[in-house]
From TrEMBL:
Residues 57-126 form the Transcription factor NikR nickel binding C-terminal domain. The keyword Transferase does not apply. Pfam families: NikR_C (PF08753). InterPro entries: Acetolactate_synth/TF_NikR_C, ACT-like_dom_sf, Arc_rbn_hlx_hlx, CopG/NikR_regulator, Ribbon_hlx_hlx, TF_NikR_Ni-bd_C. One of its GO terms (biological process) is regulation of DNA-templated transcription. This is CopG family nickel-responsive transcriptional regulator. Gene3D superfamilies: ACT-like. Chain A, domain 2, Met repressor-like. It comes from the Archaea. Keywords: DNA-binding, Transcription, Transcription regulation. One of its GO terms (molecular function) is DNA binding.
Length: 131
């Protein structure tokens, strides 16, 4: 299936450099691998039940979203154990160390992704409900 995407020039240049450095044969293959990795990561988060320990990391533009982010963090304080914050140029990088019900951590993750000023959200399940 052919499809097209609107991708900023800088991002596509960086992506092309990365897949070539990895020795991947072409951009289509690299996109398929990246999509598969995303689907696998999303599926694990969706399928996990019970108590989890997780690290949720995200970056954002501070001045555009800080009040809303603080509100979300207070709303999910039942699963957020600790936070860490650092500055990377005009962006802020935040990590949330979480423990609690997988559904609550999932809700928190999706809530963070809803903010336009949040560039990306990554979740690392350290211990899932099956362990």
């Amino acid at each position: 299936m052919r499809t097209s995407f609107n991708i900023p020039d800088g991002l596509i240049e960086e992506f092309d450099r990365a897949w070539r450095d990895e020795g991947i044969e072409n951009r289509s293959r690299a996109v398929r691998e990246a999509m598969l990795e995303f689907v696998e990561s999303h599926s694990r988060l969706e399928e996990t039940t019970g108590e989890v320990v997780a690290l949720v990391g995200f970056d954002y533009r501070h001045h555009e979203v800080i009040r809303e982010l603080h509100g979300a963090q207070h709303e999910y304080q039942d699963v957020i154990l600790n936070t860490s914050h650092t500055h990377q140029g005009e962006w802020c990088l935040e990590s949330l160390f979480c423990r609690g019900d997988a559904e609550r951590v999932r809700e928190l993750t999706y809530r963070l992704r809803d903010f336009d000023a949040v560039r990306r959200v990554k979740v690392m399940l350290i211990r899932d409900g099956d362990e």
